[in-house]
Amino acid sequence: MLSVADATSQILAAFTPLAREVVGLDRALGRVLAEPVTARLSQPPADVSAMDGYAVRGADIATLPVQLRVTGSIAAGAAPAQTLEPGAAMRIFTGAFLPVGADTVVIQENCERDGDAVTVREGSNRPGQHVRRMGNDFRAGETGIAPGRQLSARDVALAAAMNWPFLTVTRRPRIAILSTGDELQNPGEALGPAQIVASNGFGLAAFVTALGGTPDYLGIARDNLADLDRAIAGAAGADLLVTSGGASVGEHDLIQQALLARGAKLDFWKIAMRPGKPVMFGSLGVLPVLGLPGNPVSALVTATLFLKPAIERMLGLAARDTGPATAKLGAPMKANDQRQDYHRATLGRDASGALVATPFPQQDSAMLSLIVRADALILRPPHAPAAESGETTEIVPLLGGCYSI
Ligand code: AMP
Ligand code: MG
Question: What average pLDDT does range 78-100 have in this prediction?
Answer without folding.
Answer: 97
